[in-house]
Each structure stands twice: as C-alpha cells, then as structure tokens.
Design goal:
heterodimer; A: 114 residues; mainly beta; six-stranded mixed sheet; four-stranded antiparallel sheet; 0% helix; globular; B: 113 residues; 11 strands
Chain lengths: 114, 113
Amino acid sequence: AQSVTQLGSHVSVSEGALVLLRCNYSSSVPPYLFWYVQYPNQGLQLLLKYTTGATLVKGINGFEAEFKKSETSFHLTKPSAHMSDAAEYFCAVLGGGSARQLTFGSGTQLTVLP
Amino acid sequence: GAGVSQTPSNKVTEKGKYVELRCDPISGHTALYWYRQSLGQGPEFLIYFQGTGAADDSGLPNDRFFAVRPEGSVSTLKIQRTERGDSAVYLCASSYRDQETQYFGPGTRLLVL
C-alpha cells in the first residue's frame, strides 16, 4: 500500500526566501511521485513529477523536487518565494489497487509574507 | 484546449436527497477518475474508468455511491440518500490512456444540510 506524509500543515516564508515543503512516501513498488498546487476554489494543477531517470526534476513557476530513494523523500523547493506562490501544495504517489489511483498527502498551506 | 470541466460548481442539498455530479474530461482522454476532498484533507480516490468500464471502484465508500460513463467520455457520479458526512469537494481528473499524469477539474462543492 502507498502512503504520503507531508510534514507541516502550514509553512510561512518571507517573500524572496527559500521555500521547502517536505514529503515522505511509502510505496511497495518503484514510485511515481507528484506535486500539485491548489489555489483557492480551484482544482489541482500539476507542478512537477518524477517517474524514472534524473532524480532532480524541475517544474513550473521555478519549483523543483529531488527524489531520494534512500530517504523515501520527495521534497519541494523554490529558491525565492513570490507572493503568488501562496497556495496549498499536495504531494502524491501513484499506485494502489489498479496502479492508477493517486494517494495524496494531507497538504501544506504555504503563506508568503511581504 | 479545454480542460476538465465539472458541473455544477456548487450543490446544496438536504439529507436523504439524491444528487448527480457531472464530469466532462479532456477530449481524447480515455481514463477518468473521481476523488473526494474533505475540508483540510488531501483528495481521496473513489473510482477509475478506462473507457466505459470501471477498472477500479475500490474507493467508493458504500453502495450509496455509484458512477457511470456510458459512452466513454462524460461521467456522472451519483449519490443516493445523501448524508451530512458526504459534504466535500468532488474532483474529477482525466488522463490519456495509460499516461501517468492526471489533469484535474475545478471540482464540485457538495453541501448536505
């Protein structure tokens, strides 16, 4: 069975500061990992994904994440936060009964302070 | 191109009533998924269609929930005898064949009074 743990339900950073959102996963098979962002009253938008190959993946809006198998982690980073980054972020792993269902973490609300 | 669309965007109903939620996937996407997102939680899987058939319905919480996709495109999630605990945002996603990326719609916010 797959599971995802996101440490820190709320993270606050100053504008221009480093963003680090933590995600640890559990998977019985080689994982496919995703980060989605959700703005208020909107659906989920894909930020980036890891399937195979290079463990450092780059996404939209300057975000990147690194797959670390030994640590079962897939932390999301951005060097310099912008006010528009304020949103809720979800880490997810693909797998499950049909190997098609996404299992999500409980989310991290990012606040960017001026 | 157009993304995944869901109607209605909001639905308020009374306990015990029947509701239908509609999802229109991205054109050409053969896989369709339903998730439920409760307040303060991540989305939880409900059901997955490949074409017209439900390939995995292991996430449906009980037999009050049912979903169809008769022509392999639009899907309807049906909830009978709604309960207050069914209040949540119901998200639909689609993907092309067996590609791993799922594209989400804006969701339907269901409130059961």
